Amino acid sequence: MLPRVLVCGEIEYVKDDFEEMFRGIAEIVHLVSDSRSHFLSSFGPDGPYEGTVALYRRNTSSAVIGKFDAPLIHALADTSKVRWIAQSSSGYDKIDVQACKERGILVSNTPRANEDATATTALYLMISCLRRFSMAERSLRSGTWKTPCDAAQTYDVTGRTLGIFGLGGIGLRFAHLAHAFPMRIIYFSRRKAESVPDWCEYVSSLEELCKQADVLSLHVPLNQSTAGIIGENEIRTLRRGSVLLNTSRGRIVDQEAMIRALEDGHLSSVGLDVYPDEPCIDPRLLTFPQCTLLPHIGGVSAESSRAKELQALGNLKAFVLGGIGENIVPELKTGIGNSTML
Hints:
Elements: E1 4-8, H1 15-22, E2 27-30, H2 36-40, E3 52-57, H3 62-65, H4 70-79, E4 84-87, H5 97-102, E5 106-108, H6 115-131, H7 133-141, E6 161-165, H8 169-179, E7 184-188, E8 200-202, H9 206-212, E9 215-218, H10 232-237, E10 242-246, H11 255-263, E11 267-272, E12 292-293, H12 302-322
Parallel strand pairs: 1-2, 1-3, 3-4, 4-5, 6-7, 6-9, 7-8, 9-10, 10-11, 11-12
Helix pairs in contact: 1-12, 6-8
């Protein structure tokens, strides 16, 4: 009997590749549950998900199942044989990885698939905030031409200092794009990155990054150590008139502190693609016409969406074939043992 793989969320871009990838090595089962309780009760004998050893997960499945929080993970471990969750995105904050670690379930993500899409979104947000292009376009569309646009409040990109918090794949790609203007590029990460260009300068702390940056761009995952890490102190350490960009996760920033800084002009603008309580947006953000706001589309393009699906399914296939997959999230890379083997 072939091992079973449960697909939680539609495969949109690589349907033909998907069927061929798992032909003869796994039985594909699709999500049929209409509630969280039905989902958790369906892994037992004669249930639609009986014998499932791994899951493919898209965030869209939260509409039915909810987050893969600790209660769900513990229930899944108690009632099923699932030992692998292949998340089809680079972010995995909707999965409680600590609970997965406790129960011997590994999680993979797709860290490279949307690097270019997200980095170019950060580039757009930066240019739009400095030059106030979003405000200008809205003025044109409303029939007021460029009446609200003030040249004294717009700034060139060239020669400014970009501070990147988190020089992973997306951060480094953004650094390359911004350096072309040129900009001075500085960064802070948990550790100094290897094999980066000489023009990419490492600074010793987040505080030092904020002190020097004209534009601060956030590229760290959301976890217990990064939630709210950009708070009142960090924002006030930025130079007056600085720009804050966030294409990572909304809860990395203390939103109240950010709004206060916009109100008193300490931040000249913010460029956001992510928010703490998506899809709900704090209405106060909409009152700052100089800001550029996107509805969490930064990592989404036809190319990146296809790449995400292929990478997530590749991680899943590697697990089915060998008992251990690829692109395990950093929190779970230590202590990998035989508990994950098929």
